[in-house]
Amino acid sequence: MPAQHKRLIFCTAGLLSLACALGAAAAVGTQLWVRGTILCSTGALLVNASGPELHKFIGHIHYGLFSGQRVRQCGLGGRAFHFSFFPDLLRIIPASIHVSVILFCTVLIIFALVGAGFFMLNAFGSPYETLQGPVGLYLWSFISCSCGCLIMILFSSEVKIHHLSEKIANFKEGTFTFKSHSEQFANSFWTILVCSLVHFLNALLIRIAGFEFPFSKPKDSGTITGAVDLMY
Fold first, then answer.
1. By the 8 A CB rule, do 209 and 10 touch?
2. For 4-55, what is each residue's pLDDT tens digit?
3. Which CATH number is 166's domain given?
4. What pLDDT shows up at residue 231?
5. Quick one: how far is CA 19 from the chain centroid?
6. Is residue 76 part of a domain?
7. Rounded CA gap, 93 and 105, in Å?
8. In the chain, N or C: fewer CB atoms in 10 Å?
9. Position 7 in a domain
10. What subcellular locations does the record give (predicted)?
11. Contact, 92 vs 74, CB < 8 A?
12. Which of 192, 185, 225 is nearest to 104 (CA)?
């Protein structure tokens, strides 16, 4: 492939990695990871609410990795409550999983920036044969893609398996009991998915540029002919 085409491919991959790093950094600081509604089951059972009356007992909740907001509604109007995971909710959430998600987000951002820098260096500089050449480009892309996948797996398990929304909804509630009425992952969660797909795309761009995979090495023809010469 001509050098100009390789330079264009590396520039594209570098800009994509930089955009992923900025997008992941923005996603970490937002409260748009999960949106949902919560049902005040205690109040609904007391008045035997159904149909249109049930909407008076449905509140809203949204949160991210550090903070969020819930609006409890038990038939008397909505009341907003702002919360933060650290240190308020550490006693009720799976703290190890939550901290792991934040840690992998940090690693994703760092290695996306590293990958963007090395892509640009390969485009405009003279790449070395170790971590700056094709082996390094595959490595940075693989680490970033793996971190994005781990973030989605861990966070979705925290929300779905450990019922994170219900735990937050019932935080400091002694009288009423809330249940998750509906919940869906919001923009920041899907941003991490896009980042993972982009880093996978970067690995394909490296291959298109003409670099072989690190583990596919051509056979040394000189060694073979030398062994044949020794036979005669």
1. yes
2. 777 888 888 889 999 999 999 999 999 999 999 998 888 777 777 676 777 8
3. 1.20.140
4. 39
5. 14
6. yes
7. 18
8. C
9. yes
10. Membrane
11. no
12. 192
